[in-house]
Records
---
Amino acid sequence: MRVIAVANQKGGVAKTTTCINLGAALARNARRVLIIDMDPQAHSTLGLGLEPHEFNKTILNVLEPPRSPYHMDLKDIIVQSKTPNLYIAPSNIDLAGEEYRLIDKLGREDFLNTGIKRSRLPFDYVLIDCPPSLGILTINSLKAAREVIVTIQPHYFALRGIEEFKETLDLMRENLKHDLEVYVLITIADMRTNLYQEVFHALEEYFGEKLFRTVIRKNIALAESSSHGVPVLEYEPRSSGAQNYLALAKEVIQLEKEKPEERLFRKN
Ligand SMILES: Nc1ncnc2c1ncn2[C@@H]1O[C@H](COP(=O)(O)OP(=O)(O)OP(=O)(O)O)[C@@H](O)[C@H]1O
Ligand SMILES: [Mg+2]
């Protein structure tokens, strides 16, 4: 099982769009996929056509300490989406208070990690949608993951944001003894501009093979599909958005071969 966090402390850089649509594209390739919504905004939950406030069991219950009466096993809060092979651990606004509640708890960085490890999930992929901050919810997500995809929208300050993010990862390596494979994905790209070309070359130089070759172009169908509560593959399969996320899934699947130590769940 590969656990991949999708993160960037910057807001609006397609973290959620990537979780939903990469998730759906992996599911289309016969992978069983779980999206964990770690954002109190609950956009992944909404984007899969589910109403966050209707859930009384959410990821919040998994983050409760095991002795709390509200604690639940991750597998007991998972719901199936309308897309075959695609499941979600929903969130809602109640998660917003969790940042404060966890702050003085012992082992606070590890609750999600423990929740995932304990429940022996039958998934090939777990994609974690992080909130736009570097708080305790993001730290829990990064600690639970072996890989992280940092989504970047190309603009002049993109590299600065990445530097900050890498500092956090370095701190985690030192203080929490946790190492992560970092990949970078360019999203919401307007390929026609000179700025795009410049930023692409700068990122390529900086990240080398850790930069996905697939670039997610700006595409209105991606924005529209979320508001209709379905992945773009179902909403507009011929759109560039659908094609780009299928290509990304191919690249992600290609990496399975380089990770023999993380045996996939599938038997076929
Ligand atoms: N490739 C794209 N083309 C056009 N619009 C996009 C694209 N990707 C995402 N969007 C739109 O951009 C907005 C931000 O995307 P999204 O919510 O996925 O970002 P996010 O990083 O999860 O944001 P937040 O930090 O608030 O969680 C949304 O309205 C989404 O529909
Ligand atoms: Mg989001």
---
Amino acid sequence: MAVPETTIWDRDPHTEAKHRVIAGYFDAWFPIMTSTFPSLTVFEGYAGPGTYEKGEDGSPLIALQRLVDRQELLNGNKAVRFVFIESRKDRLDVLQATVAERFPQLPHGITVGFSHGGCEERWEQSLTSAGSWGMPIFANLDPFGPGVPYRLVERLGQNKSSEVLVTFMSDWLRRFATLTDIDAGDVQFGTTDWRKVAELGDPEEKELFLVEEYRRTLSRAGFMLTSPFKLTDEGGHAFYLIFGTGHRRGLERMKDSMWRTDPVQGLSFRDPRDPNQGILDFGNPEPDLSPLVAILSTRLESAGVGGLTIGELKDFAVLSTGFRAPHVTRAVQVILGRGTATRDPIRGQLTKQVRIRLREPNYALASRPTF
Ligand SMILES: C[S@@+](CC[C@H](N)C(=O)[O-])C[C@H]1O[C@@H](n2cnc3c(N)ncnc32)[C@H](O)[C@@H]1O
């Protein structure tokens, strides 16, 4: 996908998918956070014009609208700040005008700040003058290319209950693979370790390496839980959304939103940790759980005779794979249905306490009745 030069541009299907993910996440984030904290910030370091060619909302408008629709959450005493940075004046002007037109009067408690300039230079001052530090910040960092500053991500990682959603464009990943964006890469990763990508030959391997390297970067910055999502449109254009949080609930809600994203023709979501893992094919409304069945079987095998509880299997799946907790129940039902594992207790619902043990190898086959 070529980088648009015009003030506004056509929204493509994978951007639409990204917008659905963000909207779904805000639907969970605003109620949880406004009930817990007196104030919050939604930060967009690369805000865009706020609208697309056919009038669809951009991410700043999506965020605002989601809260304005639920303004009762503000309860008369909560404050939510929206801080938008955009480097192109024409785009910032459109953003400002779109916000003013849509919300001539914002509900009490909501403020919007606009900042013209590069995110790299403006983030610290913008968030400081908005009074954002010390309270949760959700940062959507969605540039066209490389260079999201590690210093920004690190500062957010140290800030109370903050989260980031960073966009990696695949074109950028490919360019990285030829090392032509070394400076921007160093800024983004905060070290030069990522340059080892040059030693890899296979483009898929390079892409996977960079995504994993950036997840490690987010962990280093303080976001211990990360989740990457790959969105690909039918033309093969792809980008990654990499989410970082310190809270399991945040991770779960973000995964919920990804998995709920409506089917769009030719679009797919993949967990890049394993090209065959956690695939939600949007052409097929049923998620393919066979990779999870294999992963959990391996996990149970390593656990030995003691087995693992459903709760432990869910923890593992949520924190270390692209799957969600409800998928585990269904995958365990498949494993039990095959007769390769036992459950304790043997009856009742598959609650978190139920223990699953793999049978001895070949036991299931050996124990089948012979005729
Ligand atoms: C992918 S678009 C943002 C789209 C928006 N997040 C949405 O989903 O509607 C990236 C925007 O970042 C702006 N931009 C590019 N480099 C920037 C920089 N260094 N600092 C701030 N904004 C930048 C571009 O002009 C563009 O409008």
